[in-house]
Structures are given as structure tokens and as C-alpha cells.
Design a protein that fits this description.
By secondary structure, this protein is mostly helical. It has a domain of 67 residues. It is 56% helix and 0% strand. It is built from 5 helices and no strands. The radius of gyration is 19 Å and the shape is globular.
Length: 97
């Protein structure tokens, strides 16, 4: 096996560009938190549909789930926002959580 320095240089020069480029999401794509809800909530039960429950009802239900599901505080807030608003999360912070 020989060391290919040219290949290493190409890799080193292109890696930051590849890592820094984020794929653009289509305008009608579901927020990232929707995928988190489907993957995390959907393992034990059917994930709730956005807009089907009032924020006041979601709070106690989500607090019970905190014991079993490990999410960051920001993710929990995004879950509550997304489910309470009927999927209307449009701010960049909500979309990225």
C-alpha cells in the first residue's frame, strides 16, 4: 500500500466545504422536529398529529414522557410548539430542532 499525498490534499481541501454545505430543504418539507416526533414517539405509540390537541393538554402529557424519552430542552419546546400549532413551525430555530 502506498501513501497518496495528492488524495489526502484533495480530501483536506474539500472536506470543510462538504461539511459546511447543508442541503437546502424544499419549502414544503416537514420540520426536523416532525421527523424526531415520528422516530421517537412512534416507537411506542402512534405519534400525535399536529393541531389535534390543545397546548394545555400537551404540557402534562409531554411531562410524563420526559422520563422515558431523552430530548434536549429545546427539542421538547419544539415538540410542544409543533404539536400545538398544527405544524405551523416556521421560525429557523423551530425548523432546526
Amino acid at each position: 500500500m502506498t501513501f497518496n499525498s495528492r488524495g489526502v490534499w484533495i480530501l483536506l481541501l474539500t472536506a470543510p466545504t462538504a461539511l459546511g454545505c447543508e442541503q437546502e430543504r424544499p419549502p414544503n418539507a416537514a420540520p426536523v422536529i416532525a421527523t424526531t416526533i415520528t422516530l421517537r414517539c412512534g416507537t411506542c405509540h402512534r405519534a400525535p398529529e399536529p393541531g389535534t390537541r390543545a397546548r394545555e393538554a400537551l404540557g402534562p402529557a409531554l411531562s410524563r414522557h420526559r422520563k422515558r424519552v431523552r430530548l434536549t430542552e429545546e427539542q421538547w419546546e419544539a415538540v410542544l410548539d409543533y404539536l400545538a400549532r398544527g405544524g405551523g413551525a416556521t421560525t429557523p430555530t423551530q425548523l432546526d430542532r
